[in-house]
Amino acid sequence: MDxxxxxxxxxxxxxxxxxxxTIRHLVGIGIIIGIVLFTYQKFFKKNNVQTTTFSGNxxxxxxxxKPSRFFIPFIEGSVGQGxxxxxxxxxxxxxxxx
Length: 98
Prior knowledge:
The protein is of the alpha+beta class. It is flat and about 80 Å long. It has helices at residues 6-11, 16-44, and strands at 71-82, 85-96. Strand 1 and strand 2 form a beta hairpin. It has two helices and two strands. Helices cover 36% and strands 24% of the residues.
C-alpha cells in the first residue's frame, strides 16, 4: 500500500479529473437531497390552514400570500394526442421562488 504523499495531494488540485469527480458526486448528493425534500414536503409536512372570518359590511378583501417555500422540486407527466398516436412525456426539475 502506498504511503500518503503531500505533493501528490496538492498537485491533485491542479488536475481536471479530480474536479470532475467532485462535481459528479455533488450533483448526485444534490439529487438525493432533492428527492428526500420532495418526499418530505409532499407526504409528511403538515399544512398550515388559515381561516379568516369577516363580519359586517365588507366591500373588498385583498389577500396577499407570500410563498413559504424557496426551493420547490417537481416531476410532471403528460399525455397528448399526436399525429401518429398518443405522445407521452415526463419532466422534472426545480423551481425557485423569491
